[in-house]
Amino acid sequence: MLLLPLCALAASFLFAICAAAPSVSLISNTQLDANGIFFVSYDGVVNVNSFQLSGVLTHGEFQYAGWYTSTRYAILARRQLPSGAWSTLQLPHQLSTNDSHNVIALGVSPNDGKIHVALDCHSTEMYYTSSEAGLATSGASWVASQFSTITNNLGNLNVGTNQVTYPQFVVTPDNLLQFVYRSGISGNGATQLAEYANGAWSNVGSWASASGTYTSTNGVQSTARNLYIHGFTYGSGHAHVTGTWREQNSGVSCSSGGLTNHDTVYFYSQDKGRTWKNSAGSNIATSGSSPVNVNTGGIIIDSLNADHGLMNQESQAVDSAGQIHAIISYVPGRFTQCVTNYESNRTAYARPFHVFRSSNGTFTKVEIPFAINAVGRSQIALDHNDNLYVVLPYVRIVTASKASGWTDWTLAYDGVAQGLNAFGEVTVDRARISTGVLSILYQLRSSGTTPSAVKVIDFNLNG
Questions:
Q1: Are 133 and 109 in contact (CB under 8 A)?
Q2: Burial (CB count within 10 angstroms: exposed 0-12, middle 13-18, buried 19+), residue 125
């Protein structure tokens, strides 16, 4: 791993005089619901979480969003792009518990135009429904009767009724829909993959397991864990994954108040998640039979022990050359070598880093010169010229140009200074980015359980 300090900006001077970091311009800020449910758990809110894929989603000429309103019912919304009015429907399901993990995830299967919804799970049974065929493309009436009965299975596939977390829908290069989720629990779970084709779901299997033995720098060993992923992202025909391991044994960290997350890993698949390779191109795993584990060779791209409050489940994107870019964040050693309270220490000291792969298979890490000022995570996006846009907590957008080697970081929009009053983390519409528009779903800060507004703010990417 090559670490570029901020002084590397000087080395990029010749690029910088020809091209500056890109800007963004505000298009609109639209209110979806004046009274979204609000409570804080696990440092987050249930309507907006970084791992939510997707809370806001574009398919064709329509954009969709999902959230829980103050009565706890799940709400789905649709608008015609670029600026149509939002229409809403209420699903016959109420949020089961005040847990910010229990997000709503939306997906569309392109081959039949069905909208898929997974929701309300954290190491519990999952709830799922899908629409009539063609609803995602036809513009037919936006009413709850267009959706099937809510069940605890993924359509025809039983994914387990008591330990499902982090549902995500992903579209493959050949327009199949896949479903990524974790089985098990934090510190002892497996990452799973299912696939929808010809109107039915089938199981691909676990591709990252809890097995293996991790020995911390303090000598303590852990024999169970789970992989927290920053994404499952297709680019140049390959599925790319970055992530971090969370150990079950808290003794691997210097303090019980820290996080047991360690190391950033990367691997990829050339066959839609069936088999996996490390960055060097070596075969390392097969889904369902021999998944990736903590002792798999050649997958660590940034080594870090469990003492620095390394955050799980940030974000990633793939550039036009098929190379992965990820955002990670932790408390650098210049502030402390032992995070004793991850909430307060991360808020005071955590810094974001841009980690990216070059065509020769090596990785570079650049510290982004803006503090997170929050516990939570950031969102990364790439425009058609491979310029970078990172949405930090509170809708602060920082950018860097490809021409500078992604080192000329600039604050392009400051949601704090603009008075948005956003609560921490946001999520973005990744499917819309290719059109040059960044749609960001966020919720207003509140207190206790007082409901607050859920909004979508749109920006032109001017790179």
A1: no
A2: middle
- The bridge status of strand 261-269 relative to strand 221-222 is unpaired
Cβ atoms 420, 445 nearer than 8 A? no
CA distance 355 to 300: 12
Q: Tens of pLDDT along the chain (463 residues)?
A: 666 554 444 444 444 445 699 999 999 999 999 999 999 999 999 999 999 989 999 999 999 999 999 999 999 999 999 999 999 999 999 999 999 999 999 999 999 999 999 999 999 999 999 999 999 999 899 999 999 999 999 999 998 777 999 999 999 999 999 999 999 999 999 999 999 999 999 999 999 999 999 999 999 999 999 999 999 999 999 999 999 999 999 999 999 999 999 999 999 999 999 999 999 999 999 999 999 999 999 999 999 999 999 999 999 999 999 999 999 999 999 999 999 999 999 999 999 999 999 999 999 999 999 999 999 999 999 999 999 999 999 999 999 999 999 999 999 999 999 999 999 999 999 999 999 999 999 999 999 999 999 999 999 999 8
pTM of the model: 0.95
> Which is nearest to 304 in space by CA: 260, 340, 249, 267?
260
Q: What is the DSSP letter of 153?
A: S
Residue 110 in tokens:
């392109």
Rounded to an integer, what distance in angstroms lies between the CA atom of residue 244 and that of residue 265?
A: 6
Would you say the C-alpha torsion 102, 275, 322, 398 has a positive or negative sign?
positive
Distance CA 188, CA 190 (A): 7
Give the sign of the dihedral formed by CA 191, CA 197, CA 199, CA 202.
negative
Give the residue from 366, 283, 273, 384 showing the smallest Cα distance to 325.
366
- Phi, psi dihedrals of residue 371, rounded to the nearest 5°: -70, 150
Tell me which residue of 188, 72, 172, 60 sits closest to 119, measured CA to CA: 72
In the numeric block, which tokens belong to residue 4?
């570029």
Q: For residue 271, what are its two tokens?
A: 């066959």
Give the chain's end-to-end CA distance (angstroms, integer): 28
Q: Compute φ and ψ for 275, nearest 5 degrees.
A: -130, 160
Q: Could you give the dihedral angle defined by the CA atoms of residues 421, 401, 372 and 321, in that order, rounded to the nearest 10 degrees? A: 110
User: Cα–Cα distance between 463 and 454 in angstroms, integer?
Assistant: 28
Cis? peptide before 451, omega within 30° of 0: no
